[in-house]
Amino acid sequence: MNIEKLMQQLEAKHPGENEYLQAVKEVLMTIETEYNNHPEFEKAKIAERLVEPDRIFTFKVPWVDDRGEVQVNLAYRIQFNNAIGPYKGGLRFHPSVNPSILKFLGFEQIFKNALTTLPMGGSKGGSDFNPKGKSDNEVMRFCQAFMLELWRNIGPDTDVPAGDIGVGGREIAYLYGMYRKLARENTGVLTGKNLEFGGSLVRPEATGFGALYFTQQMLQTAGTDLKGKTIAISGFGNVAWGAALKATQLGGKVVTISGPDGYIYDKEGLTDEKIDYMLYLRATCNDIVAPYAEKFGAVFVADRRPWEVKVDIALPCATQNELNAADAAALVANGVMCVAEVSNMGCTPEAIELLQQHKILYGPGKAVNAGGVATSGLEMTQNAMHLSWTAEEVDLKLHQIMREIHTQCVQYGRETDGYINYMKGANVAGFLKVAKAMLAQGII
Ligand code: 2IT
Fold first, then answer.
1. Domain ends where: 185, 220, 240?
2. Which of 132, 159, 250, 378: disulfide with 87, CB 3.0–4.6 Å?
């Protein structure tokens, strides 16, 4: 595989799509050796076929706001690869959404989904619609207009969307209602549904819970655990909430959360009451964390990210590239032992390089946060069987899946000096599954 040539070709075809190019480059660089051990991959041009999505739907979403004014948003669904199962991946509603961001997310999703051990392909979608500050009725009308266009291209055995940033239970419910009406069927076409109409217990917590199960495995493999460890979390959305809840349950002390306005440093650590307050803050839709400091007597640091706080473990839970080389250097100088990405591609390539140089435990998003989509997979299974499992059953399966993902990372990521390169392990394990499926199925 000639990575340089491949990247040049990709860049020429998709100029300026930096997030997409970043995600592809990381995977190609880490699978190179394994790829070259398989001349049949090169012969079938697996890499060239894998880096381009199968297809992209781009559509406009016209809707009417509460003042009676017509709004027009742009939306996408990127069906990246379905070699191992139906396309599966979230929808992101955020003003920053563009083809580059959705392609990076869709590409990552292929390997993440392969790691879960479940038969799911990779896709992603979303819109530049901003749900912040919108009324429930506006969100409903937008979701209905979005689904009116998308519904023909998805299905329970074709492509199964879910939530991501800006898309939670409320949005999924509105999207599901419209799909049901148009298709005249009740199927598991979306995951993250409410419990009353086919949702799975534990799905809201699953990304954060799975991330902490994985982090616990990383620490145990290194001879330690979460008990008594200080933890910095960024973000204060659904994922940060689940991570804070499980981190606290497992004996860790979460000392930061953050929003677009800055971060909170709470040296006493988060408690269940404080974690519940995060949800309240979120629901009020102002998108700021500052009120937490006032309510609980903690420190609020405006316009900065929490990586300057001295902690044992850092868990980016907000968005891509939220932890850069300078942040990584600050964490290392403060003696961090583990950085686990709960957000997708939370660290920049320079940050990852620095952490790995210092032999810090680094967990990539596609392994660490795979519990979210894995539990979506469990929701699909329950829907297909027309039954629902207890929280204990789902949590047990989530736990097993995270352990299996960790085992795969160790198998393919252990280096000669014993250091576990989780990034390489996750990429190689995920890639091999998809590549073998593509090879077996011929050139299609
Ligand atoms: O990034 C992710 O894995 C998600 N947003 C969840 C996707 C899903 O289908 O549950």
1. 185
2. 159
How many domains would you assign to the chain? 2
H or E stretch covering 231 = strand 230-233
370 alpha carbon – ligand 1 mean position (Å): 8
DSSP-based helix, strand, coil % in the chain, nearest 5: 50, 15, 30
Say what the alpha-carbon torsion angle 34, 39, 42, 46 is, to the nearest 10 degrees. -60
Q: For residue 347, is it within any domain?
A: yes
d(CA 50, CA 28): 10
Q: Is the CB of 90 under 6 A from ligand 1?
A: yes
Question: Catalytic: 60?
Answer: no
For residue 373, the ligand 1 atom closest to its alpha carbon is 10
Catalytic entry in 103, 112, 124, 424: 124
- Could you tell me if the CB of 345 is within 6 A of ligand 1? no
Q: Identify each DSSP E strand in 32-121 by its residue range.
A: 55-64, 70-81, 87-93
DSSP alpha helix (H) spans, 167-305: 169-183, 203-221, 238-249, 272-283, 290-296
Ligand 1 in reach of 344 Cβ (< 6 A): yes
**Same domain membership, residue 269 and residue 153:** no
C-alpha 174 – ligand 1 centre gap (Å): 18
Mark which of 122, 156, 185 sits at the end of a domain: 185
Are 129 and 250 within one domain? no
Residue 130 included in any domain: yes
Residue 363 lies in a domain: yes
pLDDT in single tens digits along all 444 residues of the chain: 999 999 999 999 999 999 999 999 999 999 999 999 999 999 999 999 999 999 999 999 999 999 999 999 999 999 999 999 999 999 999 999 999 999 999 999 999 999 999 999 999 999 999 999 999 999 999 999 999 999 999 999 999 999 999 999 999 999 999 999 999 999 999 999 999 999 999 999 999 999 999 999 999 999 999 999 999 999 999 999 999 999 999 999 999 999 999 999 999 999 999 999 988 888 886 789 999 999 999 999 999 999 999 999 999 999 999 999 999 999 999 999 999 999 999 999 999 999 999 999 999 999 999 999 999 999 999 999 999 999 999 999 999 999 999 999 999 999 999 999 999 999 999 999 999 999 999 999
Shortest CA distance to 322 belongs to which of 239, 221, 212, 440?
A: 239
Among 112, 373, 401, residue to substitute to test ligand 1 (most atoms within 8 Å of Cβ): 373
> pTM, whole model, 2 decimals?
0.98
Q: Is residue 102 part of a domain?
A: yes
CATH number for the domain spanning 89: value is 3.40.50.10860
Same domain, 286 and 353: yes
Cα–Cα distance, 434 to 414 (Å, whole number): 21
Domain that holds residue 319: 206-368
Residues 22 and 67 in one domain: yes
